[in-house]
Amino acid sequence: MRFKEKVVLVTGATQNTGLFIVAHFIREGAFVIVNGISSAEIENGKKRLNELGLNASLWISADISNCNEVIDMFVQIKSKFGRIDVLVNNAAHLGVGGKFEEISIDFFLEVLKVNLLGTFQVAQQAVKMMLNQVSKGVIINVGSNVSTQSIHNRTAYVTSKGGIDALSRSMAIDLAPKGIRVNMVAPGYIYSNRWDSLPTEVYNRRKANIPMSAEASGDDIAEAVAFLASDAAKNICGERLIVDGGCSAQLFPLDVDK
């Protein structure tokens, strides 16, 4: 097991991709800390993980856009474990809906506060702990392929993910000399429970957009995260690993490439 007795924090991890990442690290022997935004989300996450026959080491309710709640989360982590070996910044506000000219300033800031400021705040507190450890640690930020190829009516989300690209590179070069590796996973379409309510034509259109004709599973993203966090990637730093079935490599989907 690559992460036996390593202390791993995964944010926004009570459902969907985050929960798959949690499950992957638990199966690889890690002590996993699961963060969710509310106690209700935490309870939901516990139920889902129990259904998989797995248990996390610590559950913490914290809104990562709130600085004080982030600080308190790390007080709890330090009290229980005394260190952190891997941070996976997975939490995200999806920023769904709204034409550009209709987006309110409050909504735009709300998305950035979770996705960009939240990622920064959690990473900064983790780094403060890591710098006081013999074995410093690894940080994986979960971005998106939309940071370089925009999608419609998601300006706040796209902007925040572009910021995570830049933040990840900046963190990587600042922290590498101090022994902390930073990389990013950039997914495309990922299957989640939101897909179950999609109209058939939308579901089929999404499939047709992907060269491999299949959206990523939570396990696909978890595998990519675990690889970058492992010793197999010990000389990889400041990189962006795209997991999108080939979407970023194409100009047009096959059915419209005429």
- In N-to-C order, the SSE pattern is EHEHEHEHEHEHHE
Strand content: 5-15%
The total strand number stands at 7
Q: Roughly how much helix do the residues carry, as a percent range? A: 40-55%
Poorly predicted runs are none
Q: What would you report as the Rg, rounded to the nearest angstrom? A: 18 Å
* CATH hierarchy: architecture: 3-Layer(aba) Sandwich
Q: What structural class do you assign from the helix and strand content?
A: alpha/beta
**CATH homologous superfamily descriptor:** NAD(P)-binding Rossmann-like Domain
**Count of folded domains:** 1
Described by strand count, sense and barrel closure, the largest sheet is: 7 strands, parallel
How many helices? The count is 7
Mean pLDDT: 96
- Using the coordinates shown, work out and report the CATH topology: Rossmann fold
CATH class designation: Alpha Beta
Described by the principal axes of the CA atoms, the overall outline is globular
Spatial strand order of the main sheet: 3-2-1-4-5-6-7
Distance N terminus to C terminus?
Answer: 48 Å
